[in-house]
Each structure stands twice: as structure tokens, then as C-alpha cells.
Amino acid sequence: MFNLLEWTITQDQINHYARVSGDYNPIHIDLQAAQKAGLPNCIAHGMLVMALGSWALRQWGENAFELVSYEARFQAMTFPGEPLLVKGFWINKAEGKGSLTVENKLGEVKMKGAFTANIIT
Amino acid sequence: MKEKIELYNYSYTIEKKELYAFQEAVFERQSCKKIPPTFSTVMDFCGGLSFFKLAELLFFDSSFVLHGSQSYEYIKPFTVGETIDATVSLISKTEKKGMTFAKLKTEYKRDGELVLVSRSTIIEQKGGRHV
Q1: ipTM of this predicted complex?
Q2: I want to staple B12 with a disulfide (CB 3.0 to 4.6 A). Which of A44, B43, B90, B130 is the partner?
Q3: Cα-flanking dihedrals φ and ψ of residue A116, to 5°?
Q4: Which chain B residue is nearest to residue A118, measuring alpha carbons?
């Protein structure tokens, strides 16, 4: 098990991510558009949550991981201001296969991910 | 449909300014040495099609588009100043329980050599429950 990491994505971070990534899906940045889509609030980009996962991988592995693959399934909405926990563990360290999840403090899984990395020794 | 269809191609040259801005947005240190694992989203939207154009191409209502899944295979490293040629294909488009799922595959090449493969599932879901 890697160290548990905590992060809260803010609406400002979501807006900033939209500007730099070019992903202007309005449900992320426009409250009225989010509500039209049946959401109570704007939601974080799945790709921003996935980037949070890769941030965690860097915290855990620093320069010792060279990613070979990285995948994510977005399972629930991530709302701005929602405290998140990033958990990860090796499935098979010898093969560089690991798992990570991003969830809230109630245990709702936002993103279920897997990665394969070359471990640089 | 379940037959692969090539949707569009684009070229994108990685600029230091855009890389640094993205690194800041995804909590990474600013550095030309390492491209963040999810940087290709910048290439797709800034070099390829906008979110709205992509939705239109998929015949999706842009008000109800969600991202279901994403995966990457990192084949060769690439860096600032290099030009990447991307080919985006629709792998399948299926409907289930009122939702439409489009699976896309993007191959990124540098000078003809494959460097990255991306696969994503984009969902049109009215009254959405996914991300």
C-alpha cells in the first residue's frame, strides 16, 4: 500500500484546467449547463481526476516509475470542494502492475485506475 | 456500429508554454524533461477538435456528454518542440439503457513512429450519472 494522499479539487482548478487543456465541456465550468444536464453542481473533468492519480503516482514513485500504461474508469461525479483520498497499491510489484483509486471520504469511488510501470532501480 | 472508422487527423507541436501551463494545472512541477501522462488531452483539444466539434462529429448532444473511461499506452517518450501526428478513429458506437457509448482510439506518431496510444469512452447520457 502506498501512502494515502488527500486532495480537494476546487472550481478554480477546474476552470483553470478547462482553459489549459481546451476541454470546455460546459458541465465543468457553467453551473446552468450542469443543472440542465441534471447535475446539482459543476463537476470536475474526469481527466483532471485522472491527472490527480498520476500526481499521486509521482508522489509515490518520484522518478522511480516510468509509466508503460495507465487506465481509468470514471465511476462517479467529482464535485468541487469535495475532499478526496487517493489510494494505491501494487498488484504485482515484480511486474510493475499497480492499482489506484480516487474516492471521497464516504468511500464513494470516483475513479478506479490501473497502471503498469517500469521500476527504475 | 462496430467497424473502425477513421474520424480525423491532426498535427500538434508541443510548445513549452502550453506544457508548463498544463503541468501547473495538474499539480506537476514545470519541466521540459517529462510530459505529464495525460498531456495528450491538450493535443486533442488544442491541436485536434474542440469539445463541441467532437460532439457534433459523434452526433452527440453537447449538453449531455460525459467521459466514461480513458487509457494510455506509453510507447516512446516525446518532448517539447516535437511534432506529433495523431489519427483519431471511432472503434464502436453502441446504445444501452438510453445511453450512447462511443469508443475512440487515437494513435500518436512522431516522424511515422508510434509513440502513444489513447483509448477513450465518451458517453451521451441525458440526465447523466457518470463523470
Answers
A1: 0.94
A2: B43
A3: -125, 135
A4: B74
A1-24 pLDDT, tens per residue? 899 999 999 999 999 999 999 999
What angle, 0 to 180 degrees and rounded to 10, lies between the N-to-C axes of helices B16-25 and A11-21?
160
The torsion angles phi and psi of B18, rounded to 5 degrees, stand at: -70, -35
Residue A7 near residue A52, CB atoms below 8 Å: yes
Considering its fold, how many domains does chain B have in total? 1
Identify all chain B residues contacting A48, using CB atoms and an 8 Å cutoff: 25-26
pLDDT of residue B2: 62
Chain A residue at shortest CA distance from B40? A21
Domain ranges, ordered by start, for chain A? 5-10+43-119
Contact A70 B28 (CB under 8 A): no
B131 assigned to some structural domain:
no
Mention every residue, 6+ apart, whose C-beta is less than 8 A from residue B18: A20, B42, B46
A43, closest residue in chain B (CA to CA): B131
Inspect the interface and report whether the beta carbons of B127 and A50 lie closer than 8 Å. no
Residue B128: what pLDDT?
45
Full residue range of the structural domain in which residue B18 is found: 5-124
For B74-82, what is the mean pLDDT?
96
pLDDT digits (tens, 9 = 90+) for A27-84: 999 999 999 999 999 999 999 999 999 999 999 986 688 999 999 999 999 999 999 9
Which residues, numbered 80 to 109 in chain A, qualify as contacts with chain B under a Cβ-Cβ cut-off of 8 Å?
none
Report pTM.
Answer: 0.94
